[in-house]
Amino acid sequence: MLSDEYNLYWIICKQCGYRSQDSWQQDHAQKLRQLHINMKGCNDNSVALALEMTELSSEMESQPPQPQDGIDWMYDCLDVAKGILLEHHRHYDGTENCDLDKFFRESTFELFIQKDRPYAYAYINANNGTPYPIGINYNFVTQTAENERMLHIVLVHELLHAIHPDWGHNKITPEERKLANISCHYDAIHNMEIMYLSGKMRYCDV
Question: pTM of the full predicted structure?
Answer without folding.
Answer: 0.64
